[in-house]
# Entry
Amino acid sequence: MSTGKFYITTPIYYPSDKLHIGHAYCTVAADAMARYKRLCGYDVLFLTGTDEHGQKIEDKAREAGITPKQFVDRIVTGERGVLDLWKLMNISNDRFIRTTDEYHVKAIQRIFRRMYDNGDIYKGKYVGKYCKPCESFWTESQLVDGKCPDCGREVVDAEEEAYFFRLSKYAGRVQDLLENTDFLQPRSRVNEMVNNFIKPGLEDLCVSRTSFTWGIPVDFDPGHVVYVWIDALSNYITALGFDNDQYQDYEKYWPADVHFVGKEIVRFHSIIWPAMLMSMGLPLPKKVYGHGWLNFGGEKMSKSRGNVVDPYILAEKFGVDALRFFMLRTFPFGSDGNFTNELLIQTINTDLANDLGNLVSRTTAMVGKYFGGRLPAGSDKWDRPTAEDKDLTAMASGLRDRYEAEMEAFQFQNALEEIFKVIQRANKYIDENAPWTLAKDMAANGPRLAHVLYELLEATRICGILLTPFMPESMEKLFAQIGADETVRTWSSAAVWGALPGEAAPVKGENLFPRIDMEKELAELAKLQAPAEPDIELEPQSQEQVDFDTFCKSDFRAVKVKDCQPVKKSEKLLCFTLDDGTGADRQILSGIAKWYKPQDLIGKTLVAIVNLPPRKMMGLASNGMLISAVHREKGEEKLNLLMVDDAIPAGAKMC
Ligand code: MSP
# Structure
């Protein structure tokens, strides 16, 4: 059995109030990897956590009217927060770090000082674009149309005092690491890093800010907070106890065996992080694996694009294991994958309901039907193996090695493909041996039938062991159904054909993966996943000011509706005859037919502006405009005419 330690990490997540399955993707992959390594006998430390500092959080908390700490607490530990999501997805992390944890904060201050003391952090000037009203620095690329992305106002060139990390000093060593070792995988990501970031010239990195406060203060220069990426990347060592007393595992687990990260943050992990470790004289992680994105409708799933898929909805409908399985079975880990509900249901139906589910239910049902639930002693032995026996046995006994090779290369999709080849072979074996025909003459064929069923149980057992890291709960149920106890669920027994005792006693149980009605579920999902419209949407208030004298020129009056008629050939317009207190009728046209029936308005007292220049619409004159309140509700435009108390006489001035 392989032994040793295995330290695996996911990125630490920004607290987001809309966690989606894109977020879960990396964590589920890391969980499958951690469970696989535990199965192999490794002493695993699996770390995940949350990245809780920075200006964005400070701003969002301010908007919500709470402190940044209250804000992050709510999203991390609150209902359906980060911790809840990992529980839902059955994530087996051994440790969870929050960058607001006191021990981490202290450790970051020490780490910052280490790099300052050895001369790799120095004080300089940060030059950027500054928005005075917002007191914020922006980079050129953050500006929107050259203006402040927050308030839309002009920005000015400005400087602030800041600390810098000598990233440039490590450019050569980092390039060598990327080009000449297996540090960064998949290999295709290496060129991108070297050509886009290192070759154009690595500049020193600004590692402190003074324009906001929600961060870890530089202890020897209060007023500066540590740049979030220095704070965040260091989590991988502070969570082991580096520069703190909270944990004592740094010596044991560091360097990490692998950091799993999404492709857009490979840059931080493969350039800045190694340079920081080099600066501190610490060993480098063995590998960084940059996985692809789960896209939805061809674009990265993200809250701002409004195309997120809610893991709670899917897990409730199809089960957590099916969802975990789908993510890793369908998309190659190193590339992007396009999530669709069809693909999810199709994968569940084909692989889990049809292939695996049927294999288990048919086999266990036949042992019940033909042997009363227990195979006779000796059914594991057969001295005249057929070509099909040999084929299935060979495929299943060699499966563990093929699977291991794929898992070691983080090729989850291929590892699962190997398993499903065996499952498909086993289903074919049922048809080849036609147990129902053998059962017609039990006296002659009983032992052969028992062996055929044994072969099926045994192949299922081996597949079940190797599927456990992906679908832990369902495989527990599968083992119970095929009658495989703890001793034959181990990694070593996965390479031993015949480990299941001959007198196996399977129990037909609940359907492990019920078939899904594609059409019905797609329709339901479309409803559930429709982007939620905000309940009430209001027109933003005008920033442009109007001077008082101009405003006073607008003449608003109470008007009484004497008559109201639809306008011929117009779907929108109603034609009002109004008493405006002058003694002469006033005609106003208004595009409100969608919201009002003409007869309902007769006799009402409304408000109109009466000194607009006359307009012609559909050949009719309109002398003024009726005032309405408009807003959107659940995406739909709503309009309400402003109606005032009927006691107000026609012609009363509004001011
Ligand atoms: N806080 C940083 C990471 C710091 S690690 C020292 C961060 N957080 S994040 O919440 O924005 O993203 C966390 C991880 O989720 C990243 O690896 C990111 O790639 C991943 N994903 C977010 N959306 C994703 C998809 N739609 N698909 C796959 N993974 C994606 O970055």
The two ends are 87 Å apart (CA to CA). Residues 339-495 form a domain with the Isoleucyl-tRNA Synthetase; Domain 1 fold (CATH 1.10.730.10).
